[in-house]
Design goal:
heterodimer, A: about 280 residues, mainly alpha, about 80% helix, B: four-stranded antiparallel sheet
Chain lengths: ~280, ~290
């Protein structure tokens, strides 16, 4: 009797395992096929145009590059790891400052009509400007390349944070505010227990949009300012005519951007409440 | 019996894009302590507007509202509100939702353990102590509404205001919650004012049923006392002559004398004329007195 149940249960597990394997296969097949096609086209193009490195050459260069990512031969010759970390540090600082300023400003714009009337035209006017247009002002203000690059990140990150926070605050359901009103909650409690949790998903959307642009902008800003950073490194390798390194930089930038985005999506999911 | 809530000559006018809209006029109502009052009327008759006025969420354009002999100037913990759509904060557990209210009212005078005890007692009153650590999305609609009631009762309000609390629930859950509410109110002796559009609910629960005329410019058309003894049992009342008479009275008011404004346009003008006439006459008399 017991052996019978054991085997049926075992079969069920096996079936479940097979199903999982099948769905996993299905999920993998598409991307793998896409990559294979991509590499194939790349190989063909590289064979036609000799300046473009083939996938094989690029792969070998990447293996070599990543075997020692953290060497340091003076200010203009550092490993790709150092450059990547320098870029991430700039993004983190600029981004953090933008959150520090942008989220309270967004809160004020969303909560008080007078503040909204004053600032929303300014935000609308400045938002479409490329952050790189602010770079000279940063150089002028800080007289150094590194803070200027951080400044550009700050400027590009702050708009989505302000706008999304403000939208979130203005969309807090009236029901929740009514609860706050009938319970006579203090402004502090309203902010921490009602507004902040209700606005958090919007805020995290703003943060996610910001990190995307910040990562786009840092590469361009570092090309202009020089020093260290993945953008500078890419430009430096162009000056050295190491085209395979440029291709590697493109992939690295893409992968890091994807990781940042995934991280923030996971964070947003963790803090987003669901109504039903 | 003490007169607990007094509403005197209250009117409410809203400014809309099309001009002033008179929602309520000449509302006079006195509610005694421990009384259960329902406000009934067709949708758009301003019964929720009246409840919001008592809650202090809106201020009247004219007249005055008093609770325990003090003018109502805003929301306060002496008047708890249960909303139609439960309005629990979705990021807080049932316990936390109730605790938020308890903390606000008793936080200054009581210790943390006492606050937690009050919160648990309120949840126990509605039979939801086992679900105290669940989030609102993890419990059913009826349970959510019970948490809403627990939150309202936990602050020991003088008046419990309920805005169609069971309107969004299915008939069986609604009946179950009505029975529970009867028991709870019998236990706590809380003065209750409840908005409803359900005739049976009104008769089963109320001491008096306040029937509102159709809007715009709605007012109290009739107040029907329900002389049924408590505790009330819905099964036994089903064929009770007093129950049936009360029920017939409300149905008659709602469907014959003040028919649904959207369906019977023909019947409305006659009623409107009848109910509107006294006001201008009174105004004329007042003007005459002033002139003299």
């Amino acid at each position: 009797m017991s052996t019978v149940t054991m085997t049926t249960r075992g079969d069920a597990f096996a079936a479940l395992g097979r199903e999982r394997l099948e769905s996993a296969l299905k999920a993998v097949v598409g991307p793998v096929a896409g990559f294979a096609l991509f590499v194939l086209v790349w190989q063909v193009v590289a064979m036609r145009i000799p300046e473009i490195p083939t996938p094989g050459v690029t792969w070998h260069a990447a293996v070599e590059l990543f075997s020692d990512p953290f060497y340091d031969n003076g200010p203009n010759d550092k490993g790709i790891g150092w450059n990547l970390l320098a870029s991430l540090e700039r993004v983190a600082i600029g981004f953090g400052l933008a959150a520090l300023v942008g989220i309270p400003v967004g809160f004020a714009i969303g909560r008080y009509a007078a503040v909204r009337a004053m600032f929303s035209p300014i935000v609308s006017l400045l938002r479409p400007v490329s952050p790189l247009a602010w770079l000279p002002l940063g150089l002028l203000l800080f007289k150094a390349a590194n803070p200027a690059a951080i400044w550009a990140i700050f400027i590009c990150s702050i708009w989505p944070m302000i706008i999304n926070t403000a939208v979130g605050v203005s969309r807090v359901p009236q029901d929740y505010l009514n609860v706050a009103r009938v319970l006579n909650l203090s402004e502090w409690k309203v902010t921490t227990k009602v507004l902040l949790p209700a606005v958090l998903p919007y805020m995290l959307t703003g943060v996610r949009l910001s990190i995307g642009t910040a990562w786009l902008v840092i590469v361009a800003a570092e090309m202009l300012t020089g020093g260290t950073g993945i953008g500078f490194w890419l430009w430096d390798e162009w000056n050295n005519l190491k085209v395979e390194h440029i291709v590697i930089a493109i992939f690295v930038i893409g992968i890091v951007g994807l990781l940042l985005e995934t991280l923030l999506v996971a964070l947003a999911r963790r803090f987003t409440y669901t109504e039903e | 019996m003490k007169k607990f809530v007094r509403i005197e000559r209250v009117g409410q006018t809203f400014d809309t894009r099309k001009g002033a809209f008179v929602a309520l006029r000449d509302i006079d109502l006195t509610v005694e302590q421990g009384e259960f009052i329902t406000l009934i009327g067709h949708s758009g008759c301003g019964k929720s507007t009246l409840l919001n006025l008592i809650a202090g969420l809106t201020r009247p354009t004219s007249g005055v509202l008093l609770c325990a002999e003090r003018e109502i100037t805003g929301p306060g913990p002496d008047r708890a509100v249960v909303f139609q759509n439960h309005s629990l904060l979705p990021w807080l557990t049932c316990f936390q939702n109730v605790h938020l209210a308890v903390e606000r009212v008793f936080g200054a005078t009581e210790k943390r353990a006492q606050l937690a005890e009050r919160t648990r007692a309120a949840l126990d009153l509605v039979g939801l102590l086992p679900a105290q650590n669940k989030l609102p999305r993890e419990i059913s609609g009826g349970m959510k509404q019970r948490v809403g009631i627990a939150r309202a009762l936990a602050i020991e309000p003088g008046v419990l205001l309920m805005d169609e609390p069971f309107g969004a629930l299915d008939a069986l859950t609604r009946a179950h919650l009505q029975d529970e509410l009867l028991k709870i109110v019998a236990k706590t002796r809380t003065t209750t004012i409840m908005v409803t559009h359900d005739v049976d609910e009104a008769v089963l629960l109320s001491d008096r049923i306040v029937m509102l005329t159709n809007g715009p410019a709605a007012t109290i058309g009739e107040i029907l006392p329900v002389p049924l003894s408590r505790p009330r049992d819905r099964v036994r009342l089903a064929n009770d002559p007093t129950y049936l008479a009360c029920r017939a009275g409300v149905v008659d008011f709602l469907h014959r004398r003040h028919g649904n404004p959207e369906r019977s346009q023909a019947a409305a003008p006659a009623n409107a004329v009848l109910s509107v006439v006294p006001a201008p006459l009174e105004e004329a008399a007042a003007a005459a007195r002033a002139a003299a």
